[in-house]
């Protein structure tokens, strides 16, 4: 199971109560490039107006995850609303909602790394 470090989790939920939180930490390659930390399969799990969701595997843990890729240009005026929803997902913890594991944001794209909750997806041949 994917177990991010406490520092990574604190960054994920925006906590700044640790002494090192005020020091700018260099980002790990997998924090800025989705392909550094995950193998993104060709298996498409879904598609919507803002982007697509694909199955991926975390390189270090071999955990299957869903990666939602959203183009910021397509989001347009909805970018603020999407960022608000991401902030809510960071603190939300419920059995019926896929857990947000990581957010990677580049200049053009937002990637949401989500747990895979459907047991059928976990047995798909990739």
List keywords for this structure.
ATP-binding; Kinase-like_dom_sf; alpha+beta; single chain; 126 residues; 6 helices
Notes on the structure:
The chain has 126 residues and is an alpha+beta fold. The protein has a domain of 88 residues: Phosphorylase Kinase, domain 1, CATH 3.30.200.20. The protein is built from 6 helices and 5 strands. The chain has a 5-stranded antiparallel sheet. Strand 4 and strand 5 form a beta hairpin.
In short:
Helix content is 29%, strand content 31%.
Number of helices: 6
Radius of gyration: 15 Å
Order of helices and strands: HHHEEEHHEEH
Low-confidence stretches: 1-7, 15-24
In what order do the strands lie side by side in the largest sheet?
1-2-3-5-4
* Secondary structure: number of strands: 5
Specify the biggest β-sheet: 5 strands, antiparallel
Global outline = globular
By CATH, the architecture of the domain at 34-121 is named 2-Layer Sandwich
Q: Kindly report how far apart the N and C termini lie.
A: 19 Å
Helix content: 25-40%
The CATH C-level class name of the domain at 34-121: Alpha Beta
Q: How confident overall, as mean pLDDT?
A: 76
CATH superfamily of the domain at 34-121: Phosphorylase Kinase, domain 1
- Tell me the fraction of residues in β-strands, as a range: 25-35%
Give the CATH topology of the domain at 34-121.
Answer: Phosphorylase Kinase, domain 1
Structural class: alpha+beta
Pfam family, one: Pkinase
Protein name: non-specific serine/threonine protein kinase
EC number: 2.7.11.1
Catalytic activity: L-seryl-[protein] + ATP = O-phospho-L-seryl-[protein] + ADP + H(+); L-threonyl-[protein] + ATP = O-phospho-L-threonyl-[protein] + ADP + H(+)
